[in-house]
Amino acid sequence: MSIHIGLYARTFHQPTIRGFSRYLLNLIEILHQLDIKITLFSDIKISTQMKSMLPNNINIIENSKQKSFVWFYYYLPKLLRKNNITHYWTPANTGIPPLICKKIKTISTIHDLISYNDFKKKFNPFLITHWLYAYQWKLSLNANFIVTVSDFSNKEIVKVSHRIDTIFTIPNLLDNNFLQNQIVPYSERKYFFYAGGFDERKNIYFLLDSFSNFEKEYHGIELLIAGGLSLEKRNELESYAKSNKIKFLGYVDDSQLKMLYSKAIATIIPSMEEGFGLQIVESALSKTPVLVSNRTSLPEVAGPDIFNFDPTNSNQLIEQMIKLALSETIWNDQLEKLIRNTKRFSSDNIKNRLDNFLKMVV
To answer: Could you write out the DSSP letters of every residue in 7-39?
Structure first.
């Protein structure tokens, strides 16, 4: 049986690369290497910037006339049948149309259950949009096959879906765009680094407090923070920060991000919840150690011998920052261990896991 995968590409409507779009780009790259036929479907027009990053011969079917809701629920199932799609794959937690032909096998990548659990807490039975979103999650959790990115997320999904045999862990892969061939000398590294979002689970205020206390004793070291911010949120965080050594950089592109990783003493990931922790592998490729929260998937992805801390205990984080800022020996040891641990996310390893998965689903 030949396989023709339809990928839901709504996440490509934004011109900037974010978590879901980076995942989808990497997935397309590996499927292309495996010589799998792919067609992208989107209820919103895909941005020109994203199209420029795709293989030249990839087929794209996007909505340009209909209301997004109508296209997704009514036209998409017909388009999947018309284009002889054998497997429909949504890469961003939700995105399976309910009227899809039963002959078409469905695959849902559920990165984590963070948004699902948050939604359940806020569910309002009087809002139709909430019922539709709940229905979307039900369809994803009932897909023929579920792919997730960490063993931690796998176990969490098993708890709510009550299934085991059709849930597969295929981690995020190392994105070689971040590969740094030469290690920036330890003596030239003058800042800690954070890259990511600013919602509550990212625990940014804890990081600001911890660094402010660290900086009282250890002058000359900065904290650089990269990530898209509204003007209101930026002003709020800048007002909260108790140190002029904390710099908010706003959104940075991949070339800037690679440079920022590569010159840091360490990348700090203080999250209360993560489904994977992509910054860990990006930092490893950029030849920079990490300090990670001991919650959810982060210790699994970084490895058991990498420094981790309780994200409610500022003293633990500060102690680890001091070790990396003052000891080149400890710094080198942590970097070597991180690079060794994250080799399991290499393109070849993930490609083999994905190939084995596709052979099984066919």
So the answer is: EE-GGGGSSS--HHHHHHHHHHHHHHHTT-EEE
What is the C-alpha separation between 53 and 86, in angstroms, rounded? Answer: 25
Q: Enumerate domains of the chain plus CATH numbers.
A: 4-173+346-361 (3.40.50.2000), 176-343 (3.40.50.2000)
Series of mean pLDDT values for 10-residue runs along the chain (362 residues) = 92 90 93 94 95 92 93 96 97 94 95 95 95 95 96 96 93 84 96 96 97 92 95 91 91 94 98 96 96 97 96 98 98 97 92 94 86
* 195 Cα distance to chain centroid: 12
Round to whole Å and give the CA distance between 139 and 260: 40
Taken as a whole, the chain contains a residue count of 362
- Token couple for 294: 């001991």
Residue 91 is encoded by which pair of tokens? Answer: 């890469």
Evaluate if pTM is beyond 0.85: yes
Q: What angle do CA 205, 206, 210 make, to 5 degrees?
A: 115
Which structure tokens are listed for 320? 């680890």
Output the six-digit token pair for 172. Answer: 């995020």
